[in-house]
Design a protein that fits this description.
Order of helices and strands: HEEHHHHHHHHHHHHHHHHHHHHHH
Distance between the termini: 94 Å
Radius of gyration: 29 Å
Oligomer: single chain
Number of helices: 23
Largest sheet: 2 strands, antiparallel
Shape: elongated
């Protein structure tokens, strides 16, 4: 009985091997580069530690790769093939290399990602592949391919939007990322992405926030919903939301108070993103100055660094900011922070005159960049006094 079962499994394995061999023979010719067919380069490119040569080889093949990449995106495993593979895996006599349709789909998408906008002439064919609903895997990779092409893939937007109610969360994340990368037709896309911010699945929320950020001011209508999302429990969701608010860069009367609250987030990552984005608003973020001054004492050095930069960019209320920045120079261990503080002080010009004694001390600092920055700051704050100091015979800065 056992011998008979072994023979049956062997026969099935031979049948599966023969089927795979015949399938391989039936495939159209692929473009070849440096003696290797495209699929060999694609397989190498999808490995965790891929050789940069594989990516460059695919770029060299260029648009000649498109027919093969489209074929890979259309790959689908039949029920019979899946059953034969499952049976063949139960025996150990014959080893054969099988590449599933899902992997082929992935390789097709990866190839388009490498070609990027150079594959724009494939957009109509990619839309057809997506609309044919071959499989979730095919659609996932095809959406990624369209996103990699960018703005030239705008004709695909109606097809992509039509699947935003699909029950598969991973497919929806791929579509959202594609919509952000294409960043066209905000009149159609922004309302759908805004609605996605309220999805029960966190990845949908953070990918939607990220995509909205790519639309810049055209996503202004999403700001109220994004602000609500700052209360989400997920750190990634809050991080992408803070970043999106900075990229959209509109309605400071709404956004600045929300980012001020984010400066007190329990996550240091959120705090330094909040400080960075407050600085990007410039003088419109003046109400954030007290909170940013508090952030100069944050336990995280990156938060402190971003708070220093933000105070320089906002460039307001020197009577509060300059003394706080002078105090920050007392941190003798962080030379990067010191460089940033000196630069921010210089940006205040004559209003930073109380900092002159401290800056003069820094002309003898061990860090040459700190010395150079101190020299530049002195020239911004008090050019006449700086000229006398810097031209003195014993001056370190020449």
């Amino acid at each position: 009985m056992r011998k008979r079962r072994s023979r049956i499994l062997l026969a099935i394995a031979l049948l599966a091997f023969l089927g795979a061999f015949l399938w391989h023979l039936s495939q159209p010719n692929e473009p070849i580069y440096q003696g290797q067919p495209l699929t060999v380069w694609l397989e190498a490119a999808r490995q965790p530690l891929s050789d940069p040569d594989s990516t460059e080889s695919i770029r060299q093949i260029g648009t000649n790769a498109i027919p093969t990449l489209l074929r890979l995106l259309r790959a689908k495993d039949s029920s019979l093939k899946l059953r034969l593979i499952a049976l063949a895996q139960k025996q150990s006599v014959i080893k054969f290399h099988n590449i599933s349709a899902e992997i082929q789909n992935n390789e097709g998408g990866e190839g388009f990602a490498i070609l990027g906008a150079h594959a724009s002439n494939a957009v109509p064919a990619l839309i057809k592949v997506f609309d044919d609903n071959i499989s979730v895997s095919s659609r996932f990779s095809t959406a990624g391919a369209l996103g990699a092409i960018g703005l030239e893939a705008a004709p695909a937007i109606p097809s992509l939007l039509s699947e935003m109610t699909n029950s598969d969360m991973y497919l929806r994340t791929s579509i959202i990322q594609a919509l952000g990368s294409i960043h066209s037709r905000p009149d159609l896309v922004v309302p759908v992405l805004t609605k996605s911010l309220q999805d029960t699945n966190s990845p949908i929320c953070w990918f939607a926030a990220e995509a909205l950020g790519k639309f810049g001011p055209e996503a202004r209508a999403a700001i109220p919903t994004l602000i609500q999302l700052l209360a989400d429990q997920g750190v990634i969701v809050r991080r992408e939301t803070v970043s999106a608010l900075g990229q959209i860069h509109s309605d400071p009367e709404l956004v600045v108070p929300a980012l001020i609250n984010a400066l007190h987030d329990r996550s240091a990552e959120i705090r330094f993103f909040a400080a960075t984005n407050l600085g990007s608003f410039g003088p419109a973020a003046k109400p954030a100055i007290p909170a940013l001054i508090q952030s100069l004492a944050d336990q995280n050095e990156i938060v402190r660094l971003d708070a220093v930069s933000a105070l320089g960019q906002i460039h307001a209320e020197p009577e509060l900011v300059v003394p706080a920045l002078i105090n920050a120079l007392d941190d003798q261990t962080n030379w990067i922070l010191k460089r940033s503080v000196v630069r921010s002080l210089g940006s205040f010009g004559a209003a930073a005159k109380p900092a002159v004694p401290k800056l003069m001390e820094l002309l003898k600092d061990n860090d040459p960049i700190v010395r150079k920055r101190a020299s530049e700051a002195l020239q911004q704050i008090d050019p006449e006094a700086a000229a006398k100091i810097l031209t003195a015979p014993d001056s370190i800065i020449k």
